[in-house]
Predict the 3D structure of the following.
Amino acid sequence: MTTLRDRAAIIGIGQTAFSKQSGITEHRAACEAIRAAIDDAGLAPKDIDGFVRYDIESNTELALIYSLGIPHLRFFAGVTSGGGAVCGTLVLAAMAIATGQARNVVCFRARNRGKRSISTPGKFGGGRPWERQPQQVADFYQYHTPFGLITPAQEMALIYHRHMHEYGTTTEHFGQVAVAQRTHAERNPNAVMRQPITLSDHQSSRWIAEPLRMLDCCLETDGACAVVVTSRERARDAQHTPAYILAGAQAEGPIHIQLSDYFTHRNEETGGRSVAKQIYEMAEVSPRDINAAMFYDHFSPAVLTSLEDYGFCKPGESGPFVAAGNIQWPHGRLPVNTHGGSLSEAFIHGFNHILEGVRQIRGTSTCQVENAELVLVTSSNTDPTGAVLLRR
Amino acid sequence: MSQKSETPVPVPNFDNAGFWEGCRNHELRIQRCCACSALRHHPRPLCPACNSSDYDWHKVSGRGTLYTFTIVHGPTLAAFAAHAPYNVAVVQLDEGPYLVTNIVEYNGTPLRIGLPVEVVFNDVDATISLPKFRPVKPMSGSAATLKD
């Protein structure tokens, strides 16, 4: 059977600086990150013939090819959602390459969401989209926003509170994720937040939406990240070690977090479990073969549910798994978010996790896992979701 | 609410009007499939169990259980910020479906997952009432019945 296994590889990565206020537009940020990725791949703009973006991305392919001087695109697509789209971009790029629809595909995310970032009018013009909720609610949010359920933190708090109730997970477990990732960020010059934090700092940080505290929440960042994906064959000539996409998959259902269905299917097949099954079968590997994981972490307990759904521990055992130091670089069984993740490096809607996955494969992370050969990168473990396995 | 005009309000549509009409009449009516009798919430045009588009609005007991909740401190929409900290809850109805709501009239009773609750209606304006839930008065008067 033909699959996506090993059909494509990431040969270029690029990014802007990450900050709370870049002073540049999302368009310029996207252009800078993409140009850097093209350079890193040893290619020129004319070599790019495909683009994949998040469907909520403000930068259209059209605007980007005009700015970058890319003459012809043959393939372009947007993946549904925000944080759920991260790895789906790579899946689509690999599909396009495997079927000959494109040769070299750029995937990217640009986002001005720092507190003082440059905002432009429109739903996705910067700042916080939820602040621009209409007063007359005609879509599915009408079952939520009239009750004051507004932000992602509040939505996810409902899910994680239920996890605590069912499994005895504690907010200290959340804090151990935040502290571990901060220790990783301390070594990463790209990270926005590098000052050390303790579990006590976490426990005394202010409530945002109980059981989530401020230090459980991702940063709000200005910045952009991009990669160039090409075929396995062309990747052999790349100037940097290619990160081969050994496997990749997406899933949607049944945790419809925006449709009043919070956590009610946790004991059944979640999107994350569906993706895990798909990629492990495609790659013919198991969780024990994986050297590091970049889990989407809009909130620290997202790492806990991801550890469970991707099979690194049993359902309900992620809290003790983290408390035992298993996600801590360098000695943990599975170093997680070795760049600091969305909690401490930057929140580029998860795309910076792909770049860190590639750095682990290249051997250039500031928290390098020795002999990293297989790295898992995931999209937001809600709905929709996705993941890729990158190999050296 | 001093900022009532800014509070988001639902705009009923062809698929969900029966739900909001029920609320307006202070009855909790949940969409029910006429072909297979499955209840569903949120309202939608097809039954996800059998795909029939034939449905009615079934008056349920209004009783349920607190499934999960958060206490919101902020940031949040300006219309709600003045009321923070406030709760947002998911209630599972005795009949099965889940609703996002708020727990009201719980004066000092610590909110706990598993708390038995019953529906009450909050008239927002001339056409919209929101279903909210309050603790069911314990039959025995024992605080233990409020714990899960």
Chain B has two domains: 12-59, 61-148. Helices of chain B lie at 17-24, 78-81.
